[in-house]
Every structure is written in C-alpha cells, then in structure tokens.
Design a protein that fits this description.
Number of strands: 11
Order of helices and strands: HHEHEEEEEEEEEHHE
Oligomer: single chain
Strand order of the largest sheet: 2-3-4-9-10
Strand content: 25-35%
Length: about 220
C-alpha cells in the first residue's frame, strides 16, 4: 500500500499506510533484535501481583527512561518466548505494551503502543474466534476465549506520536490481550469460574520456563 506522505509519518517511529495505520511489518526482525540487544531481561510478574490487577498510569513522559523500558520489555518478552508484553508484566505501572507477533498468515508484526485504547467495532465487524489463549503472567496455562478476530488500537508510539494499529486473527487477539493488561484485566478474568479455576490449576501444576516474581 502507498505510504501517507505527511509530516506525522516522518516524525513517527514507523511509517503509515494510506489509511493512517502503522506499517509494523517492515524490517520487523531487525527492529526487534535492535530493541532487545539494548535491553535487559526482567522477571515476569504473575497473577496475584497487585500491579496486574489495577489500571496502569498514563505515559506522559516520552524520554530516555521510557525508551530504556521499551528495550527491557522486548528483551523480557524474547526471554519468555512471548508475542506481546505489557509494562505491568515486569512490574512497571505504565500504559505501554510491546509486541512481536505473527498474524494468521504468518506475517510478523513488531511495535510499541503507549496509552492504548481499543476501537469499538460495529456489530457487523465482530466475528468471534474462540481459539486458545495463554499469558506470560499465568505461565503454562491455556484456555479457549472468544475474542473478535479483528482489532484496532489507537495510542502513541515510544516518542509520543499518535498511532493506529490494526490486526487480524492471532495478532488481533494479542492487541486485545495486551490492552486488557494495562487496564487491570488478565485473560482469565474473562473466563467462567470453572475455566479460571482450571487455568490456575494448570499454572500450579507446572513450572514456568522463565524467571517470575514470586508473590508474597
């Protein structure tokens, strides 16, 4: 698609298409590598940690401290073999998430969203997908969860530029999942009581493959 020739595009971290959505597929591998090589991997917070169960603070300062956080988030995500990570998953109370996620066609999407908001979809565009879902903060547990198979998120990039991100299939699930995190919701909060209990049982019966922060 043609890129939008605007000052906004040139100021932003990623180019945008002719509908104003970021093009997060170009040089995805190289960009992800650069982020994580600058970063330091941190342990993952798990369900029960208070930072995961409340709305995070808005990002208001777009400087070196935020850039360092983003680098650390990519490093932490890679260590845990995840496809998305919210700041509160490494104990930071800020509305920012990173992603390095394929869509259902296997196309890789890599980017950063600060202060995300999900766009409400009209009924005719809400086709539900009830695939399995997991979470680095609920390690080793999976459960089917119905979510729309298309998602749009608005927010800002790590330099404060307004952005729009859209995705389908697995990537749409990732955008919804990570935005949920920043408003204090884990995917197991959207399950029935029985399904939630089963997910927590799975977590209790298995060892995570990455470092986690133990709850006191």
């Amino acid at each position: 698609m043609a890129q939008q020739d605007t000052d906004q595009q040139h100021a932003g971290v990623l180019p945008v298409d002719d509908e104003g959505f970021v093009i997060d597929t170009e040089q995805a591998e190289e960009r992800e590598l650069a982020y994580r090589e600058r970063g330091t991997s941190r342990p993952i917070t798990v369900v029960g940690n208070p930072v995961l169960h409340k709305e995070c603070k808005d990002v208001t300062e777009f400087g070196d401290e935020l850039l360092k956080l983003v680098d650390d988030m990519f490093a932490s995500q890679h260590t845990a073999e995840g496809v998305g990570l919210a700041a509160n998953q490494i104990g930071v109370d800020l509305k920012v998430f990173v992603y390095d996620c394929p869509d259902d066609e296997g196309v890789r999407h890599t980017g950063v969203v600060c202060n995300p908001k999900l766009v409400e979809l009209p009924a005719e565009r809400r086709r539900l997908d009830d695939s399995n879902e997991g979470c680095l903060s609920v390690p080793t547990a999976y459960a089917p969860l119905a979510r729309p198979d298309y998602a749009e998120v608005t927010g800002q990039d790590e330099k404060g530029n307004p952005i729009k991100v859209r995705g389908t299939g697995y990537f749409a699930r990732c955008l919804q999942h990570e935005t949920d995190h920043l408003y204090g919701y884990l995917y197991i909060d959207r399950l029935s009581k029985r399904e939630r209990k089963d997910a927590l049982r799975q977590m209790a019966e298995n060892e995570p493959r990455y470092a986690v922060v133990a709850n006191d």
